[in-house]
Amino acid sequence: MTVMTKLYYRFVYWRRRLGRAVRPAPGPRRPAPGRGQRLLAVKRSAYRFRPLYVFAVIVAIVLAVSYLMAAGGAGRGPLPW
To answer: What pTM, to 2 d.p., does this model score?
Structure first.
């Protein structure tokens, strides 16, 4: 399996996780205790948006590598591999 194929499948995996994360979550089965409820909400939202952060990092890495490859080989023709 090539590196690009692995990167593609990782990209698809995180995109699916992102899709699941932004859908409305089902309500809790029992209410959380009053103390620490805000902290629980912050932890839940941070966990819920983790796929978004990972997806953004993967896209940023791909864009940076693409930029570096284009800037490094500008005007040299096709790549040797």
So the answer is: 0.42
